[in-house]
Amino acid sequence: MTASSDDESPMDSWRNERRTQALAAFDDQIPALYRQRIYLDTKVAEWADCTDEAPTSLFLWGPLGVGKTHNAWQATRRWVGRQFDGNYRGTPIVQTWRSTALFDALRPDDTGGTPKRLMKALQTADLLYIDDVAAARVSPTGWTQERLYEIFDERYINRLPILITSDVKPSQISHIVGERVTSRSNEIFRGGVVHLDGDDRRKGGAAA
Ligand SMILES: Nc1ncnc2c1ncn2[C@@H]1O[C@H](COP(=O)(O)OP(=O)(O)O)[C@@H](O)[C@H]1O
Ligand SMILES: [Mg+2]
């Protein structure tokens, strides 16, 4: 067999092709504002690279406009690319949600339950990214908080990653997500709480 010019094995080149396809598909999911490549925070990049030292899950918090959502989208993209290295298990499934949309979706439907398929998808996706978890002005009901707990708990016991952005620290989300999720979060995000600090980038430019 002829080796390709850069000595890629057929397996490597097949994987690289899959990676390119997966990243192209993921790019279509990224809101236009967050598609630009940026330098990721070091700890965020470590998480995305799935290094041995990196925590499974990441809680990215800091003030408004500091770049949390942009870091999270780009870190997720980098994480997707990494899933084609080493222990490849197929194209990863990523669930990305703004918290307000997620809480809405987790409310009881006409039949009085949360759609089972949605629960399963949220519990088993290879990565669950929830943006701006404390953004809701009104806390979800206890019923919805209980569904959230079922998602977090199931992911925790299966060591499946959760990526969260928030403008408040993990100990301050209990009024939104409830006590049980907050308490689980202590374990889930141990070693994975990253504080992004700096100026509000939206106020940059002429006003700076
Ligand atoms: N590292 C970066 N380089 C350039 N622009 C950035 C960077 N991080 C964020 N931005 C831009 O700054 C603005 C605020 O970022 P965003 O991620 O929405 O902040 P947050 O989620 O913390 O409120 C957005 O327009 C975003 O594209
Ligand atoms: Mg944001």
Q: What average pLDDT do the residues reach?
A: 92
Second CATH tier, the architecture: 3-Layer(aba) Sandwich
Main pleated-sheet profile: 5 strands, parallel
Oligomer: single chain
SSE string, helix = H, strand = E? HHEHEHHEHEHHE
Bound molecules: adenosine-5'-diphosphate, magnesium ion
Secondary structural class: alpha/beta
Strand composition percent? 5-15%
Structurally, the number of domains stands at: 1
- CATH class term: Alpha Beta
Q: Could you tell me the number of beta strands?
A: 5
Low-confidence regions? none
Identify the overall geometry: globular
Cα radius of gyration in angstroms: 18 Å
CATH superfamily: P-loop containing nucleotide triphosphate hydrolases
| Amount of helix | 40-55%
Number of helices: 8
Question: Would you give an account of this structure?
Answer:
It is a single chain. The protein has 208 residues and is an alpha/beta fold. The protein has one domain (10-196): P-loop containing nucleotide triphosphate hydrolases (Rossmann fold, 3-Layer(aba) Sandwich), CATH 3.40.50. It has eight helices and five strands. The chain has helices at 10-29, 42-48, 68-82, 99-105, 116-124, 142-157, 174-177, 179-188; strands at 58-61, 94-98, 127-131, 162-166, 193-195. The protein has a five-stranded parallel beta sheet with strand order 2-3-4-1-5, with helices on both faces. The site of adenosine-5'-diphosphate (ADP) has 14 residues, from helix 3.
Give the secondary structure arrangement, pairings included.
Layout: H1 10-29, H2 42-48, E1 58-61, H3 68-82, E2 94-98, H4 99-105, H5 116-124, E3 127-131, H6 142-157, E4 162-166, H7 174-177, H8 179-188, E5 193-195
Parallel strand pairs: 1-4, 1-5, 2-3, 3-4
